[in-house]
Amino acid sequence: MKKVITCVDQNALLKPVRDYGIYVAKSLGAELVFIHVVEIPELGENFYGLAAGGIVLGEKDILTNSYGSAQLGGVDAQKDYEEAEVMLQECVSAATAAGVKASKIIKDGDFIDVISEYKDEAEIFVLGIKGSNSEDVGFNASILIKELHVPSLLVNKEFSPINSVLIAFDGTDAAKRTLEFVKSSKLLASAHKHVLHVNADAAAGEEMLDLAREILGTQNASFICANAEVPADEIIKYRRANELDLIATGAFTKGFFKKLFLGSVSEDILHNALVPVLVLS
Fold it and tell me: Do residues 245 and 163 lie in contact, with contact meaning Cβ atoms separated by under 8 Å?
């Protein structure tokens, strides 16, 4: 059975990430796994290595805190490790109370290396988005999605049920996979789907929407072509105007994913999205 891998950390998004993880697992009828990684700094407090080279992150990594290994000692390492165990057990207890089978994992190591061990058994990852600035958020999240090739739900707010979803569609392979996921996933079976294509050429835009209709079908779905030059701006604006619960996008769709985290629309456009983002690569 595929699993919902939910990455938790002791920060303001702990409860929202936990609750979205429970919701996703219950919707999919999947086992839920809460995982916390105790980072071991290798080349300095804010450096984490990857096969392709190192990444320098901000002081507050968006997904984990640098506790240091309890096994390697340190002034508060054992205490922090024990607190992490308590945190995970509370998450498991909340899931059990909601009728969801859940387990917990705590491991030392590099976050991406550890999480990668579970990518083959993961149906979806649920991750909290919390960084000291938008660059930290985008850099780390984009690496995770490119490395794992698993659908990832990026959480940035308190939990609420997903009754509607905005799908950013540009005809790329990743965008097509996003539509296919939305169509087939039990998670979004009852959600109203809004497929948005942004194109300054109205005729070309309608052709793109025809392709989207072929993939998704028309039941419980709306198809919109927005005549605009900047997709990211239009996606955020449409989501807000229609008070939709989720944005779904292929990674780097029309530069949207990159701009969502790193763009110039505002210093912190991720939080302007106001809702979780489901990303497929």
Answer: yes
Tally Cβ neighbours within 10 Å of residue 31. 18
**CA–CA gap between residue 247 and residue 116 (Å, rounded):** 25
- The DSSP string of 7-36 is E--SSTTHHHHHHHHHHHHHHHT-EEEEEE
Predicted pLDDT at 105: 96
* Of 155, 141, 151, 188, residue with least CA distance to 16: 155
Please list the ranges in the chain whose pLDDT falls under 50.
Answer: 43-72, 131-136, 254, 261-269
* Cα–Cα distance for residue pair 98/26, rounded to 1 Å: 8
Q: Which residue carries 């110039």 as its tokens?
A: 264
How many angstroms separate the most distant Cα atoms in the chain? 65
Among 15, 11, 36, 20, smallest CA distance to 104 is for 36
Spatial contact of 134 and 267, defined as CB atoms under 8 Å apart: yes
Domains in the chain with CATH codes: 3-155 (3.40.50.620), 164-280 (3.40.50.620)
Take residue 125 and report the two structure tokens written for it: 């990852």
Phi, psi of 239 (to 5 degrees): -60, -45
List the beta bridge partners of residue 31. 3
281 CB-near residues (< 8 Å, 6+ apart): 145, 146, 148, 149, 174, 250, 251
Cβ atoms within 10 A of the Cβ of 128, count?
Answer: 25
- In angstroms, rounded to a whole number, what is the distance separating the alpha carbons of residues 32 and 2? 9
pLDDT at 75: 52
